[in-house]
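Q&A log
Question type: sequence-to-structure
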Amino acid sequence: MVALLAVLVGIPANFRAAAPEPQPNISVKGYYANDKAQRGRTVQAAVVMEIPSGYHVNANRPLGKYAIPTSLKIEAPKGVTVGAVAYPRAIVRKLKAGNNEPLAVYEGRAIMRFNVTVPANYQGGEIVLKARLRFQSCNDEVCFPPKNEDQDMGIGIVGAGDRVQRVNGWVFGGK
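Response status: OK
Response body:
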């Protein structure tokens, strides 16, 4: 039946459509700069994308009018304040998939940082942020449908005078 249909519409019987490329496995994880957050203080947080070699995602401010931007939305418990997201600097590339038009993309590791302020009167022993990252991944030939990756980011809460330790220096700088 397929061969008959192919002949009727003028497609050679031995023609095989190319198999679609697999969508890359992009890792998305949330991190804090401290092991705990102090009441009445601000702690740095970040969402990190690990993009496999040979792939990229559109930047937060893509240059192409049809490119879907990477965007990070953070939902926090009542009273907890989340600052603006600082997106990484984009790399500008010209790719076949974009008709050799300049595109602003992220490759390798993309770190999106933001501050989280816990109110001094916060009652809970933990906060959990709900991070939703929306992005579109591509290789040099094709772009894949946009994806949403959700990440819960929990951190314990301690008093303003309690000791906290720096962690995840590879994300935030330092040790």
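Response note: Residues 1-19 have pLDDT under 50 and may be disordered.
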